[in-house]
Amino acid sequence: MFDYSRRRLAYWFTLSMGSILILFAFTIYNRQVKEQMRELDTRIYAQTKKIASLTSYQQQEQSWQIDTENVSLQNRETLPLESKIIYILWYDSQKRLLEFIGNCPQQQSLVTPGWQTLEYSCNLNGTTRQRNLRKLTLPLKYDKSLVGYLQVAVSLEPLQDSLARLRLFLSLGVPMTLGFTGIVGWILGGLAMLPARRSYEQLQRFTADASHELRAPIAAILSNAQVGLLAPIEDNIQPHQRLENIVTQSKSMSALITNLLFLARHEGKLNPQDIAKTDIVELLNSLAKKYETLALEKGLKFNLNVPAKSQTICGDRDLL
Hints:
Radius of gyration: 48 Å
Shape: rod-shaped
CATH topology of the largest domain: Beta-Lactamase
Number of strands: 9
Distance between the termini: 34 Å
CATH class of the largest domain: Alpha Beta
Strand order of the largest sheet: 4-3-7-6-5
Helix content: 40-55%
Order of helices and strands: HEEEEEEEHHHEHE
Low-confidence stretches: 75-83
Mean pLDDT: 75
Number of domains: 3
Structural class: alpha+beta
């Protein structure tokens, strides 16, 4: 019974804590994705602005010519070393491709100012691979006139590798933490069930003590009643004494039941100040008188050896 309740407590504790843990891990992962994307976008924007500043413009007839001589893929100090620029594209104001550096995509995407995340097919050692790119399209202006557009595309592989490591850490860490939470829940469940277990064991002890302690008074009552029935009808003194013994034993049994109930309901140690002092010699003499008659009736010899002087102890007279 207690093991089942303990398992249920551990199960619900693990379930609740596991739900919180999974929600926390999901929140951490989403936050990391947003922060790393924001950081990457900031660096791409700074690099794009730098490339735009290195670009020269020359007006010929009614169009602008773009000079990219000072621009190279090696000039990317503002980007982290693991970030790879795939290509740089220049468009005129009519969104026609003028120049490019790097691997120019086979299919031109729409020239729309702002951010885009797209897939890019590249050929590495004869193998075609799909790569995710982060692309920024920036309008180029000269003397407040639109000259063209600049596109810079950066590989998302470093970001994806970082997020993959984070997912691996969470996929291993969350189950391990759930297992540890289950162990803690089992321990806490045992501690929570400890008072109930103690109360149950105390009730069991009370039942055993009650059955044992009530056996002697009931036997005494039965013996006195049977002897009273066997006494001659003319003898009025003997039945009266038997009835007095029955009343005495009944009172003793009632007090015993009350005391056993008190012990069963009481938890912990008794307060020493609440325990009265009892003369153990007087108590033993009174008990000897009670059972001396029963011993004589059964032909037994009853001997009592107690000190002549009174001996005081701390204890309830009815509970001893």
